[in-house]
């Protein structure tokens, strides 16, 4: 064990990333009954899939070496002034937000707020985001983010398809109108997503669109892709009269000045909040938004934060209407989104909190005014400006685009070069007077004109009356209180303190791999040399990125054993969809279009069947046997039955039951013999890296959740990066992008808006692999397996582990059965909530088996922390024994206990305050107080409020 021998060598990153030390090993081996690590691994992973050679990757480098290296790479990126627009604009991240959120593990290491009582901070921040989006778009409700603008547009198209009138469904109305003003990457995504489910896209001019009865919906871009702002009121009116639903993709900053689409009566408004203080990051991560009407609340994709009350009737927040999410709906789902963009949504919401309505107006006016000055000036010196009505984007006719481009690029400026004679220029928040001068000089030089005219504020009114926003927005107190840095800093801290994140204690969420997100991995994200690069710049300006992304692709190829990788997908679920679409393209390339059956085990994550349906496949569920493994006999039957039409098997490995199934090779072979391809859900890759890999088990494609196995933080529910890695035969079909080509030579259309997805976040995984190196990566996997088996054996006799491998071992996670405690009146939720009193976040509850919890400690935790957790679980087990079904007034049912309860003058419980709040000695030392009592889920769903409505309105409900 390399890293452990070198424990005193502080250069070895593995010894910082991994929480277990040399001296911990023997006691741990003793607890689980093995002599050494190799024996444990042998008993855990089937022999026939073990790798024979170490990963062909370099040795790890130190943190210092990495930071030096990444700086050298950064220096290869050229930070130009980018006025390219097309949905991405340079923005100014307020330093107070950058330092207190983006760079703060209290925010970025949190999990998705399923445990509402210890997540009120980010829930409030997301409610602010929803309110901001609803207000600016003029819609009734908004979700808590989507992956980017283009996928949000695709979600609008599919949601409106799903909610077509009964008549339309009966008549098979399947046409969706797409304005030719739509952003190119959005069009590409609409193509990808429409095809498999039978939607027919018709691209055209909105002014000549006939509103025919064969259309169910339409999407418009506001302002248009090159900046023209049109009044869509009449279009929407006609559409409504013809039962055509309308979605609008809108620029969030422009809505400060422009009439909100909601006022025209549109059905959905989508877009991105990138320009609200989020770095460009060469494409992402950024928070997309989705706003709609109350009528569609049960169909809206993604998560919605809602208001409810707790046990004492006090207001509290939680994720609302979860029954409409894919993990419940499975193959009935119309969206597969799981991980979204929470951290970025939190930041964008805070940007609105910090600036407030007046600050946003100032910024929007500044951007608009500078656009006007630029337009006036250049018009006067002879350039024709083609947008009659605009907000921030101008379109110029120029004599020699090539010459202009040479001049601008030599001056460090990027424009959007539309064709031989037109360019567009998008002005942003960071555009200074000096920038204006440089830009104007470039234009003049390109046509040999000179002018000594000064820049004057333009008094012309560009926006017609009907397009001027008159409705107020962001009137709620939260947007009008925290405009000084001190106040915002304290507001952010106030919210942060309500949330339990990895900087407090272990978050042992099975399947989610909440490991260390090391500071050295995160630091480069703060640099403008990575942050301030537009996704559509010429490749020679992004050489640092290109080198990093290429190397990450090849690192992932080595780790998975595959031939090619696409970094485009922004989440695991999006990776699933991308992978299935490459399989589909592969079958089609062989003339086997009819192959459309996707077999999925019953234990699969809900995103699997949801993704299969979105890819146009039919889901066939295969059973699991009593040991939790795929029932091979049942699988054989299903494969035989569907042999002619078999497209794919989706399989999670090791399984969601926490087991390395020994029949895996037999299973993948069976699929291949019957003409299918094997998709491996890579969420559990943390149990494989360096020991086995997807290629070895016989898979053809997998996604990886870089935000699980490869150290990107969960950010409270996103960002994510979900690359797909594929075998040789699928490589030609890896996805492309319409602006910057990526992928294979028979590439499928776009899976996400940006060519390399969330490129900025990829730096984290790149650093993780680079610093751990071959040995560190493999060591991490072994310790992850060791830690899981240690917990399993520490809890032996107290809790039953539902499934193990043939030799009694867990993989890197295990399921604990809580159903037997029903006899004491105790539900799995009670255990989850009681863990909060002990300072722990609950493990995964009721996935993949209802009434159970799934524990995954990861390699980053120390033995001391594992012991604290086991101590808490054992203590809870004793409390369960004391509980009685006839006396529900017990310490578990009343959990979690808040500070208000403990300090109240009344104490009406049959146990002590000490037992309630400080059940074990270590707790008092580092007490975490849940900020509310148990939330009432049903009440919140019945009285859905999901914006920061004044509290009086809530009281009336
Ligand atoms: C997390 C997870 C997914 C979905 O990944 P996202 O990144 O949240 O979209 C799919 N399958 C399994 C088994 C998972 O644990």
Automatic annotation (TrEMBL):
The keyword Transferase does not apply. SUPFAM superfamilies: PLP-dependent transferases. GO terms for molecular function: glycine binding; glycine dehydrogenase (decarboxylating) activity; pyridoxal phosphate binding. The modification N6-(pyridoxal phosphate)lysine is found at residue 708. Signal peptide: none annotated. Residues 780-897 form the Glycine dehydrogenase C-terminal domain. One of its GO terms (biological process) is glycine decarboxylation via glycine cleavage system. Keywords: Oxidoreductase, Pyridoxal phosphate. Its cofactor is pyridoxal 5'-phosphate. It holds the Pfam family GDC-P. Its EC number is 1.4.4.2. GO terms for cellular component: cytosol; glycine cleavage complex. The keyword Oxidoreductase applies. Residues 16-443, 456-736 form the Glycine cleavage system P-protein N-terminal domain. The glycine cleavage system is composed of four proteins: P, T, L and H. The glycine cleavage system catalyzes the degradation of glycine. The P protein binds the alpha-amino group of glycine through its pyridoxal phosphate cofactor; CO(2) is released and the remaining methylamine moiety is then transferred to the lipoamide cofactor of the H protein. Belongs to the GcvP family. This is Glycine dehydrogenase (decarboxylating). It comes from Flagellimonas flava.
